[in-house]
Amino acid sequence: MSVDIPAVIKKKRWLILSHGFNMDGRASSLTITDKIPYFLHAGIEPVVFSAITGIKDQRFPHYQYLAWGPAAFRFDFRHWIANKYRRGFFYKLTTRTVSILLAPLIGLEKFILGYSSQWSWAFPAFIHGLSLARQGKIDLIYSTGGAWSAHLAGLWLKKVTGLPLIVEVHDPLVIRKNPNDQGFEQPKNRDARFRHYLEKQLIRFSDKVWWFTDGALHYAKVRNPNLNTPNNAHGFVVTPGAHSPIGLNSKNQHQYSDKLNLCHFGSLAKDRSLSTILRALIPLFKKYPHARDSMRVHAYGAPLDPLTIEAIEKFGFNDVLLSHGRLEIDPITGKSGRQRVAERMREAEVLILLHGNDEWCAEYIPSKLYDYLWAGRPIWGITHRNPQLDQMLLDRGAYLSSEGDSEGISIALERIWLDWQLKKLIEPIWKPIGVEQAAYKIITEAQKIN
Predict the structure, then answer these.
(1) Which residues pair with 140 in a beta bridge?
(2) In this predicted model, what pLDDT tens digit does every residue of 105-121 receive, in sequence order?
C-alpha cells in the first residue's frame, strides 16, 4: 500500500463520527471503512464513534452508542440482533416485540419533531466526543454520513471546542425535486427544513466539506454563495471509489453461460425500479420469442419495489425476474456479504445500473458503480441528467440509456441480446477507481487547516 502523504502529519488524532460504521454492504459504511487502511498507513490515529448497528473494529478505539430516540433505537436494535443471531425466528420475535412496545413513543416522536429516525444519535456522539476533546485526546473531528446525526454532532463539537471539523456529505442534504428550482426547493416538512439549516451551518462553521459529485458541489454553491469564501468552509469534490472487494486487481476471464443474466445490485424504489427493464422485455420477446427462455433478470440486495412487483404480475414474469434478497455473511464459508456480492457481480453477463428518475440524480452517482468497475463486467447504465456519470460510463465502455426514453432502453436491450448471442458483449475498459486517491486528497486537505 502506497499513499503520498504530507511529510509531517500535524493533526493525526481524528475523531470519526459515522453512524453506520462497519455495516456489511452499506454504502454509507463502505465510503469510510474503505479509507481506514490508508489513514492508518499515513499515521492517522482514529477514534471512531458509531451506532451499534455494525461490527466493532479491533484495530483502533471504536465506541458504539445507542441513540436516545425510540425510532433510532428500533432501527439500531434490529441490526444488532441480526448481527448477533441472524434473521431467524428469534430475530423476528424480538424485533416485532420491540416495535410494538415502541410504537406509541415513535408516533409521539414523529408528531412532535418529525425528523428522520437516526437524528437522536447526535446526543451520545456529542457528549462522548466532548469528553475526549476536554481530555485533549483528539486533534480533528471528521463527520461522515449517511445519517445526518453524525454531522449534527460534529457541528456541536466544533462550536463548543473550536477543533477543526471536516465533513463528508455522502448524499446531498438538500433534495431538489424541480429542475427549475436551481437548488432552492422549498422544504416540505420539518426534516427537510432542518437539513437546509444543517447544510448552511456546516458551510459556515466547518473547515473543509466535500461532496461525491460535481453536481452536488455545484448546487451546494448555488444554495450557499458563501461556500469557499473567507471564514466559511472550503468545499470540493472527492470521488469515493472502492476497494477491490475480494482483493482482485485485474479482470476475470468471463465464461458465457447458457443464460443472459442481467444483474442488479442495491436498493430499489418507485423512482429506481426494475419495471423499466421488464417493460422493455415485451417488444424484445415479441421480436425474438426464443429470448424468453434464455434471459433472466436477477435482483440482489433489497426487496422488490411496488412497480416491479406489479410488472411481474402484469406480464407473467415470475420465471424471468429472480429476486435473491440481501446477501449476508455465510456462516459456513465465513465469506462476508460484500465478498458474496462481488462474486455474483463477476459471474453476471451484464450489470444493471439504475440511476433513478428524480431531479436529484444530477447530484448523485450510485456508490455500487465503483464496485461494478472492479467486477470487470459490461455495465448497462440507465441514467438521468448526470453528464459526469455518463462520461464515466462511456470512458470505460458501457451500454448507456437515458431514463424515460423507453424506445432507447428497448434498443439497448436488443443490442445486448444480439451481442450476447454472438458472444460479443462489450468488452469493458479496465479502469476501476480505488480508494487511495480519495484518502490522499482528504489527508492533504485536512493538513492545510491552520
Answers:
(1) 14
(2) 767 777 777 677 889 99
Question: Crossing angle of helices 122-134/149-161, nearest 10°?
Answer: 30
Alpha helices in 46-163 (DSSP H): 70-85, 89-112, 122-134, 149-161
When pLDDT is cut at 50, 70 and 90, the band that residue 70 belongs to is confident
Beta-bridge mates of residue 144? 18, 168
For residue 236 the three cell numbers come to 470540493
Task: Tell me how many degrees the CA angle 448-208-131 measures, rounded to the nearest 5.
Answer: 95
Grid coordinates representing 33 are 471503512
Distances (CA, A) of 63 to 20, 50, 53, 125: 12, 6, 12, 9
pLDDT band at 314 (very low <50, low <70, confident <90, very high): very high
Q: Which three cell numbers stand for residue 155?
A: 457541528
User: Taking the chain, what is the end-to-end CA distance rounded to the nearest angstrom?
Assistant: 28
Task: Give me the DSSP letters along 359-415.
Answer: GGGGG---THHHHHHHHT--EEEEE-S-HHHHHHHHHH--EEEETT-HHHHHHHHHH
| Alpha carbon distance 305, 270 (integer Å) | 6
What pLDDT, in 10s, does the model give residues 428-441? 999 999 999 999 99
Question: What DSSP character marks residue 57?
Answer: P
